[in-house]
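Lecture 7, part 2: worked example. A protein chain together with zinc ion.
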Amino acid sequence: MTTMPTVTGRPDGPHLIAPCPYCRGEHVHGRGTGPALADCHPIEGLGAYHLVDPDEPEVVWQAAPLNPTPQPARLRLV
Ligand SMILES: [Zn+2]
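Predicted complex, written out as structure tokens:
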């Protein structure tokens, strides 16, 4: 997995202005935190960065535990 640079955007109406880590310019995206793709990158598909909308808290995905904690076996009272 490649690491994406994180960029904090500047809200501008319905848009988010992102300072681009690749071309040092600014790109206009829609609002919302999430992965964005800069079309300035010479290699198609590699201009990705993680765009943070300061007005929208970042959703942190938490991996579910692979194996739930095993419950102790119940003592069967006869
Ligand atoms: Zn760019």
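The chain has no helices and six strands. Residues 22 and 43 are 11 Å apart (CA to CA). Keep this in mind for problem set question 3.
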